[in-house]
Amino acid sequence: MYDVIIAGAGPNGLLMATELALAGVKPLVLERREEVDVSPKANGLVGQVNQALDFRGIYERFAGTTQPPTAVPAYPFAAMTLGLAGIDRNPMYVLPIQQRRMEELLAERASELDVEIRRGHEVRSLTQQGESVTVRIATSSGEYELEAKYLVAADGGRSAIRKQLGIGFPGITDTSFVGRAGVVGIDAPTANQETGELDVPGHGTLRPMTFTRTEGGLFAFAMFVPGQFRVTFLEWTDAEVPGDDVPVTFDELGAAARRVLGAELTMHEPPDGVPAMLGRSTDGINSRQAERYREGRVFLVGDAAHVHSAMGGPGLNLGLQDALNLGWKLAATIKGWAPDGLLDTYDTERRPVGERVLMHTRAQLALVAPGPNVTALRELCGELLQDKANVQHIADLMSGADVRYEHGDHELTGRFFADRALHGDGGLTRFAHLMRGARPVLLLMNDRSDLADLATGWADRVELVRAQPVDHAPPAEAVLVRPDGYVAWAGSAAEGLERALATWFGVAQVRA
Ligand SMILES: Cc1cc2nc3c(=O)[nH]c(=O)nc-3n(C[C@H](O)[C@H](O)[C@H](O)COP(=O)(O)OP(=O)(O)OC[C@H]3O[C@@H](n4cnc5c(N)ncnc54)[C@H](O)[C@@H]3O)c2cc1C
Fold first, then answer.
1. For position 153, which CATH number holds?
2. What are the pocket residues of ligand 1 if the criterion is a CB atom closer than 6 Å to any ligand atom?
């Protein structure tokens, strides 16, 4: 019997697999597709997920640098500019990277950790019995069954597993607009092939990865490879739209550009034989969340648990941190040291975070619609965004920096423990490097041998590190950080530490 079967080798299923493998549990990943999906999806990682992936060394692979994540000086919120340079704590870490590349690199990491990924194997159905889940799998050469202790459904927004379990997916499908998109070539002088900027009459110089809202609709674009522009036009319209059997042409895309931008934008086939992948969508945007993230031995992660508009790019900030939250809890349960109820905290911690993402993506979609009322609302928002406190609030919301799972005595408790430079027995390091093994860390920042003695009862599970911050005063005498980077406890009192160790990491070993 397998410990865990993961359905879906998208980014969230793959990260889940690496988390389990790091914790010593062997998962099996089943992916319906034969090859990595090449359709255009995420263009980057936005927010706290960058720091969380830095804790595993995955950010380094994605970014191709050993430098820690960097925050951007400005970021779009509902096609308005959030000026972040002046705020006290800028949490908008952004890494431009295409989803396809993320999936390739995560699969590479999974294979280094000996994770088996079976491509072309589709989970068709499941049954749960006492201590296990039986999964029926279809391949091109027939069907077979496997048994596992747990099943993780990372099978995307249309999750067949969620549907089979009868877990409701309430929410809305906003069909008030038509989308047109493609990968196109745009010539100079309109396009700067090096910077990816576009000079559009009436709009000045538009930077890539920004949104332009007009009374005609919304225009977004990016340039990932010099000369290849990914463009998207959204129009709120009742006008008749050609059927799915009618291919989108460059003329149709150009007409959308004229309506949205009120200007001529000449687009043509992209260079180097790259497919233009012109498309039209009237399906609308789903904004839905699963009623519960767990049903017995089955857990939903990522898009299987929540879908929403891509405004602000929050999808993987949310989904990948679902995987980081569930991974160590599931591994602890399989290893036999999880305290009662640990697995249930996956739902109680992550569902409210998903609700907040649905809230701000819906708000952003409402704020980019055309019409004088929305224009007035945007003016008002623009005024509010002159106030640094409001910018901080929105940036914390969009990045996930405002997530706090529990409110303990200390300000840090329940929050993500940000990376910092440390000086300890082993010399200079970063806190992020202490988290590479996906184990809980007790960071002692003062000479408290009583706390160190206490923690020996959990030495098989919890890493003890003595180190001091290089640039700042210690935020507490000691901090106990969970494998997902969240603070289980901070402070100085031995009773508090003992309680937190038992709450999160189970019963102490009997000392010899
Ligand atoms: C146009 C667009 C732009 C986006 N931009 C961003 C962005 O900039 N930043 C961001 O963070 N997010 C963005 N997103 C969202 C992001 O792409 C998703 O959140 C992400 O793909 C979710 O990953 P996942 O692993 O949960 O699901 P998916 O990526 O959907 O992966 C699910 C996998 O499961 C497989 N599968 C399905 N059913 C089965 C089955 N029964 N058995 C086995 N395998 C199965 C599928 O083949 C697939 O490989 C964007 C999405 C779109 C569509």
1. 3.50.50.60
2. 7-13, 30-33, 37, 40-45, 99, 122-123, 154-156, 160, 302-303, 310, 313, 315-317, 319
Ligand 1 atom nearest 14 alpha carbon? 25
Going from the Cα of 290 to the center of ligand 1, the distance in angstroms, rounded, reads 16
Q: Using CA atoms, how far apart are residues 205 and 3, in angstroms rounded to an integer?
A: 54
**Residues 443-480: tens digit of each pLDDT:** 999 888 999 999 999 999 999 999 999 988 999 999 99
Tell me the pLDDT tens digit for each residue of 374-389. 999 999 999 999 999 9
Same domain for 159 and 115: yes
Whether residues 219 and 351 share a domain: the answer is no
Distances (CA, A) of 19 to 7, 172, 225, 330: 15, 32, 31, 10
Atom of ligand 1 at shortest range from CA of 161: 41
486-508: pLDDT as tens digits: 999 999 999 999 999 999 999 99
If asked whether residues 79 and 157 sit together in one domain, one would say no
